[in-house]
Design brief:
Blueprint lengths: L1 H15 L4 H27 L5 H23 L3
Amino acid sequence: MRRSACSVPSNIAEGSTKSSLKERRRYINIAYASAQELRSHLDIVKTCNMIRTDQLKSIDDLLVQTLKLLNCYYKKPM
């Protein structure tokens, strides 16, 4: 979970340094995939009853927001 969580901002940062749109989008795709991977980990944690429902909802809400922002950034990169 830590690896996929750390991968999201790391790939956004690295992608923002690239000069070509294709390369920037590649890193945004990696960040998006890492966020989705983290959601998968959360499903497993939920299934195993390792997290409270309110904690899970809070984290998942942030992930959904992050995924939406990544999608917007992919469509209209800086």
